[in-house]
């Protein structure tokens, strides 16, 4: 079966616009290397008229941030009757909200750090100092603070001293109206990507992330720099198997489709902790999914083409 007209969607207006454009260009170039008729389009005000004039056979969304990961753009594609790669809108909404995703995977049997999610208003109405004191008393230190919705580690902080928590909350609320504060687990940070073949999820080799300061922040993710990526991750066989199982379990429990990336921490004792899942993994030169694809002796272009073929309407 051959692919007809394909559109790669990238850009948008989120904080992650530039990363999305880089991802979109890489996917587009990969598909063109296979002579797939593909064009890259921005998710802007001209998009719907463009899709109506020249309707593609299938769309590959590579949108990061809210519109690309909360299901809204995918919902519009469904309204238009255009097939697309990736999770459906309802599953995206669950995965996009980190506290909800944590609750779902916990019910599926996965470990996830103890946490509390609170909106900005709670700190304002009940007194920030009092609320933070209770958080510290309940969860202890160290803590990890991040927006309940968002990606690319924007607005995230590790808090090792109580005096640093107020600044972490301010940084978090710069990127969202609610914060997820969770117990920080020391260990090996890994990402396990899942790609579906014939409707069955298959985990790719785990990618271990090693940063000089122990923080896999925005700069560490997208600037080659000093971040080291080790694939496959340096885990004991039993821990590696548990990480693989956790990623597949999360993919299934959250009702995801086609591809996903699950971020995990593996403790020194080998216990695997779920952190979050991404329904639109990055595709840049430094992104984790392409590294896992290469480690599995697969070709990015082939994987992207096969995902499109799975979604193309016969």
From TrEMBL:
Its main location: cytoplasm. Its EC number is 6.3.2.4. One of its GO terms (biological process) is regulation of cell shape. Pathway: Cell wall biogenesis; peptidoglycan biosynthesis. Mg(2+) 1 binds at residues 263, 276. PROSITE patterns: ATP_GRASP (PS50975). Keywords: ATP-binding, Cell shape, Cell wall biogenesis/degradation, Cytoplasm, Ligase, Magnesium, Manganese, Metal-binding, Nucleotide-binding, Peptidoglycan synthesis. It catalyses: 2 D-alanine + ATP = D-alanyl-D-alanine + ADP + phosphate + H(+). Mg(2+) 2 binds at residues 276, 278. Belongs to the D-alanine--D-alanine ligase family. PANTHER family: D-ALANINE--D-ALANINE LIGASE, D-ALANINE--D-ALANINE LIGASE B. Cell wall formation. This is D-alanine--D-alanine ligase. It comes from Actinomadura namibiensis.
